[in-house]
Amino acid sequence: MAFTYVSGRPCLDFMGTLKYRGGAGAEELLTGPECLSEWAIQAGLVGAAVDVADGDLAAALSVREAAYRIVIARLEGRRPPVADVALVNEWAAQPRITPRLLRSGATRREGTAAQLPATLAADLLDLLAGTDIDNVKRCAHDGCTRLYVDSSRGRNRHWCGMGTCGNQAKVQAFRARQRASAR
């Protein structure tokens, strides 16, 4: 499976592995432990497959959901849920994935399944502590629940990505104009 990485931060991209949240059409992309390993490889967090058990996947998904609720609370000017704060802080304090320097001078990223949510929780804390949090937005496309850092020059980006929601929104607007002019 090819995952989408358009959010500007690993923690936000990880949140995007549950599409169309809150509705009947919610779509879980991490349907098994091997999917979490593949997501981490494609995200560049690790260079090779990680052994992930069902419990590791469940832990990662609980961190993902807590992180999402924390960012949404921040965007809405509310305090995040206490249990979510405790969970993210607990994971962020754990050992993270780090690159290793090889004798050849090259580097390699490797880690364990437990280091994946720890790394993502730490990335969330870095996001919240930095200036990028002020540029985090929700995708404006109907039904999309992806969050992203708007790093555009004018800070006027509307969609999580042009190749995904932006293109769909523009096609829908074009078709609506075509129908209106045909009347």
UniProtKB/TrEMBL annotation:
Gene3D superfamilies: Jann2411-like domain (1.10.3300.10). It comes from the Bacteria. Residues 136-178 form the Zinc finger CGNR domain. Pfam families: ABATE (PF07336), zf-CGNR (PF11706). InterPro entries: ABATE, ABATE_dom_sf, Znf_CGNR. It comes from Mycobacterium rhizamassiliense. This is Zinc finger CGNR domain-containing protein.
